[in-house]
Amino acid sequence: MEEINALLSKHNHFKYEQIRSIENLPDNAKLVTLVIQDEDGNETDVVKVEFSDITASRILENSVLPLIDMSDGVTIIEEHNLYGFALGRGTAMLHVHNAPLYIVAGGIKVVQG
Questions:
Q1: Helix or strand (DSSP H, E) at 96
Q2: Which residues pair with 37 in a beta bridge?
Q3: Which residues of 27-41 are buried (b: 16+ CB within 10 A; e: fewer)?
């Protein structure tokens, strides 16, 4: 979780950035692609996070992801040996399950940074 916390800190919890896509992978996994942009909206970095052993999720269509309000960024937490990813800021799995987009998974890793 140290790597994830460092990533969130480095990119300010991805406030005002963009979720580019959420891909379904084999073995009940999903790959979330986040894009960091400069002030002109040009892409400066891409971060991919893979979630495996997914136990619950609410995923939006990739076509609407660029329209999401990212002013509160994203949350990634660890609770009871599960990882929660959600829109907005929160500190508990309750926030994750109430978010408009979320993933709860047994495994998480940054696959590209």
A1: helix 93-98
A2: 43
A3: eebbbbbbbbeeeee
Give ∠ CA 37-40-45 in degrees, rounded to 5.
Answer: 20
Task: Read off the pLDDT of residues 16-73 as tens digits, 9 standing for 90 and up.
Answer: 999 999 999 999 999 999 999 888 878 889 999 999 999 999 999 999 999 999 999 9
Structure tokens at 77: 């937490």
What's this model's pTM, rounded to 2 decimal places? 0.92
Q: Which helix (H) or strand (E) holds 7?
A: helix 2-10
Read off the tokens for 86: 């959600």
CB 102 within 8 A of CB 58: yes
- DSSP E strands in the chain: the ranges are 18-25, 29-37, 43-58, 74-79, 82-87, 102-112
Rounded (5°) CA angle 45-50-56: 130
